[in-house]
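Researcher: I need the complex structure. Ligand is oxa(dethia)-CoA. Inputs:
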Amino acid sequence: MRGTTITGTGMYVPERVLSNRDLEKLVDTTDEWIVDRTGIRERRIAAADQASSDLALIACQRALEMAGVDAKDVDQVILATTTPDRILPSCGCTLQRKLGATRAAAYDMLAACTGFVFGTGMARGLISGRMADTVLVVGVETLSRIVDYTDRNTCVLFGDGAGAALFQACEFGEGVHAVEMHSDGELGEVLEVPSGISVNPASEQTVARREHFIRMQGKKLFPFAVRSMEDATRKCCDAAGWPPEAVDLFIPHQANRRIIDGVRERLGLPENKVYVNIDRYGNTSSASIPIALDEVVRAGRLKRGDHLAIAAFGGGATWGASTMTWTMPLFTGGAPSASATDGARA
Ligand code: UT7
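Model: Output:
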């Protein structure tokens, strides 16, 4: 028996900042409303020539560099996204080519904002089942491509970015203890892009009706988000044998500051144990947890032996969580090297 653990993390966000003040010029909203109702102050927007695979590439290069692993030694690339470059080839395969992960099986996973949690579950299954030794999981989104900037209900929420984590084998009992993965297709309409591939293929009519953009019933999602993340986190804590208060750091999906606060209060965690960066990036869906994870790792906030919990919910509906004992020593490596920032517009 062997365990599964994270040995490297990386993130990348595009250079362009879209502030709440910028959005005030596009729709009937205010900086005060957005900050008060969501906690978001700004979000990043990919340049016209930046595809999801480009964002993912930089995050993955940084994760591999931190782990000291060559791209050629990666066995599987799991790319979680709702905004792939296109339908065919998969974004995972495009990333594999750009990264030079020539030995890897690469593919996309569509689990919306829960994509990184589902990727964690798959990496653990592959490694513990000895189907792979080295699995790269990347959450990446260019949500700005499917956000309707005439719809104030959604356009204030979402941003672009990528976050990656490299999973490898470790001592049994260390690393990932538990992963909860859940779906409820009955809730599909709550967050959807109404037209697409086999349902309502793109036509002049679907474009005119703006049916290729995100539509969301935010009020219905809100209580579901709080309940589902609390429940999945509690189950993962139980499986790890920890009471929730034994968690040293909790990284929830960054969808709304009030949702994060609701989950934190229900779990009985103090504010200093919950990582929040929604003010700077908004909701980056599948990328939000690995972006946050890379920030805490590089800031030296996770050390060997710490108890980490992550949790997410999203369209589908999907939700899940994971608990893990951190196995990496305190990170003191500084900023990623120039070779891991090729193509970045920093
Ligand atoms: O990752 C998964 C993706 N989705 C989510 O996580 C979303 C979860 N839901 C939410 O975060 C919140 O429900 C929202 C932030 C989307 C909305 O907050 P809310 O407190 O639930 O507001 P509401 O939908 O009840 O709307 C309150 C009012 C409405 O006006 P009326 O009908 O009361 O006159 C909205 O039209 O606020 C209005 N409103 C806005 N006003 C100014 C909605 N969006 C805006 C806006 N600026 N951007």
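Model: Summary of the prediction. The pocket of oxa(dethia)-CoA is lined by residues 29, 33-34, 37-38, 113, 152-153, 156, 191, 216, 218-219, 221-222, 225, 255-256, 283, 314 (CB under 6 Å).
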